[in-house]
Amino acid sequence: MAALALQVSWASPDEYLTAFNAEISRGGLLVRGASLVGVQAGAEVVLSASVTGGGSAQVSARVAAVVPGVGVAVMFTGGVPEELKILGSPVLEAEVLLMEEEEEDEEEVKGPPGPLSERLKKMTVTEKMQLALTGTRDERMALFRDTNKSLHIFVLKNPRIGLDEIQGAAKSPNVSPDALKMIAEHREWGSNAIVAASLVRNPKTPMPLAMRMLEKVPMSELKAIAKGGARDQLVHAARKKLAG
To answer: From CA 179, how far away is CA 62, in angstroms rounded?
Structure first.
C-alpha cells in the first residue's frame, strides 16, 4: 500500500523557523488543517514541505494522531530529516543550526530537575506523544507545561483526563490555541460553564472562538467580564448582551 500524502507550507522563512524551533526540531509536526479520514496512528505518510522564498522537500513520517477540526500530527523516525534542516535559503539554514546550538546550551545551564522532569528531558517527541496519551495526572500536567505545545492536543486525548484538568487547561495562557479550540468544541467540556468562562478570559483563545464561548457563560460571569475581566472586544460584547 502506497504511503499517504500530506502537504504543509510556510509563508516565509521566519514562519518556518518558528515551526522548526517549536515542533520540527523536537521530532514532530502538527499539520494544521490537514485531514486523513479513517487513518490510524502509525500509518506511513510522505510529507511535502515548502517555504515561500525558500525551497521544498519531501520526507517520510508516521501519523501520530488525527485530531478532527485541528489537523494531523506526524512524527519523524530516526530524528529530524536532513531535508528539513536545510529547507530554504542558506541564511535560513544557518539560523536553524544556530538555534539548535542555543537550545543545547540552555539545557546545559539548567539546574537539577526533579525525577519526572529528568525523565521527560531524556524522552523523544514520539515518546512524549505516547506518554501524553497514556500518562498519569502528574505526567499530563508536566506535558501541559512542555515547550513543545503540539503535545497539548495529545494530552487532551488521554482517556483518563478529568474535568478539573480541563478547567485548569482552559484558563492557562501556556496551553496552545489548537488545544483550547479542541476543548471548546468538545461536547462535554465546551458546555461546562467554568470551562466556557475560562476560555473567554484566556488571552490565548482565538477571538472568534472566545466570542462563541461568551454565549455559554452564566450571568454571574458575564457581569464580571463586562466589568473588565477579558479583552476589550469581549468586554464590550458582554456589556451589549447585558444591555439587550
So the answer is: 21
Cell numbers describing residue 237: 460584547
Query: In the structure, what pLDDT confidence band is assigned to residue 110 with cuts at 50, 70 and 90?
Result: very low
User: Are 48 and 138 in a shared domain?
Assistant: no
At residue 6, φ and ψ (nearest 5 deg) are -130, 150
Q: How many domains does the chain have?
A: 2
Give the DSSP per-residue string, 99-122.
HHHHHHHHHHHS----HHHHHHHT
Assess contact for 167 and 140: CB atoms under 8 A: no
pLDDT in tens, 31-68: 988 888 888 888 899 999 999 877 899 999 988 888 77
Helix ranges restricted to H, 110-191: 115-121, 125-134, 137-144, 152-156, 163-171, 177-185
What's the domain range around 33?
A: 4-109
Looking at the DSSP bridge assignments, the partners of residue 6 are 47
Which pLDDT score, from 0 to 100, does residue 221 have? 93
Beta carbons of 10 and 16 less than 8 angstroms apart: yes
Radius of gyration of the chain measured on its C-alpha atoms: 20
Distance of alpha carbon 227 from its chain centroid, rounded? 31
Same domain assignment for residues 33 and 100: yes
Four-point Cα dihedral 61, 29, 69, 202, nearest 10: 160
